């Protein structure tokens, strides 16, 4: 309940801020890259196929062939669920936009007639965090988290995940931070 | 707001299958809240649990499973039953059946809640009872109810006789071990171990349904693990120990039944 309430609030704020942003212009607009998710999807499908193939090549691995069949079915179901989850994430990523305006950073997506937008005013930013896993480094992407330093369960209030050229995003935001924060 | 509820139900179902971490995570998890807020969350969780248990038990009751009540509705229930379903006896039969079919899942949920929270306290990972309750309510509502539904389906579907025998055999083996541990004399043993069921008799559809059962068991265990990790911030070891405690719940349940039915321990 409170989550949807917060979303509504942020959505309204985002619309207001979006209107302001439109007036004063967007500083940066980008989308997350699909490469890591595609790689994970390929890994899940390939891993599932390898395990199922191994089980079928060794039908008596778990005793009776039917037991091995149960295990193979279990792996197939889990692989399908994993692939379904990643495909959903891919779809969401294609609908996601990361926006930097002169006054705020914003993550937004539209999904099945539902719009979600989360915005953080630059005045509330306390620090920026750039993270890069090995795979992200290979693809030249990374994640930029915007921290407010307020009390919350998670310190990162907003994150641009899997964003191309993350240094550019960080630099762009840093250049626009109020002097006492920067 | 029926559309909102339907959307939430669909999202919940989606999360239960594809995003268990989001499904079991307690929103706005705060360890110290006011009594009013605590009671509000307690009421919310109770509603979620009751609604899900009724959703689980109603189809079973309507299909005639586990209904043993054949008496007429008592006098105090007649006006209520008449206003709800028109026929007070049918309403009473339905209510009693739902209650009867909910007993086992409610009992095992209570036991899971106790063992899980006790383990979290012992490992000094507990961040509050409400967070444990949230984890157990959501895990039980989705995955344990799913497990029981598959078991009931197996117990009634004709083409799944071998799978049914196999599952019963596993349960009887477990109870036989408990009989031995508690030294229950053969004359007092309700279940006797039959011949092992050869897995080679399983049909492809039976291997599939048993795989589904396995997936649900894995989901249930994973959701309890995630609950300890995400809601209580427990470490890997503490979360694994809490999961182990949940695994011991059936042992405690059967032990309690044996003590009750035999009138005492004979260790």
- What general outline of chain A do the C-alpha atoms trace? elongated
Assembly context of the chains:
heterodimer
Q: Please give the alpha-carbon distance between the first and last residues of chain B.
A: 57 Å
User: What is the element string of chain A, with H for helices and E for strands?
Assistant: HEHHEEEEHEEH
Q: Which percent range fits the helix content of chain A?
A: 40-55%
Transmembrane segments (chain B): 45-69, 91-116, 128-154, 208-228, 240-260
Organism (chain B): Halobellus salinus
Keywords (chain B): Membrane, Transmembrane, Transmembrane helix
Protein name (chain B): Yip1 domain-containing protein
Write up what this structure looks like:
The complex is a heterodimer of chains A (182) and B (267). Chain A is of the alpha+beta class. Chain A has helices spanning 2-24, 35-57, 65-94, 134-139, 166-175; strands at residues 28-30, 96-100, 104-111, 114-121, 127-131, 141-147, 156-164. Chain A has two domains: 2-15 and 99-175, no CATH class; 38-91. Helix content of chain A is 51%, strand content 25%. A four-stranded antiparallel sheet of chain A has the order 1-2-3-4. Chain A is elongated and about 70 Å long. The two termini of chain A are 36 Å apart. In chain B, helix 5 (88-122) crosses helix 9 (236-247). By secondary structure, chain B is mainly alpha-helical. Chain B is built from ten helices and no strands. Chain B is globular. Helices cover 74% and strands 0% of the residues of chain B. The interface between A and B is medium-sized, with 20 and 20 residues.
Brief summary:
Chain A is 51% helix and 25% strand. Chain A has 182 residues and is of the alpha+beta class.
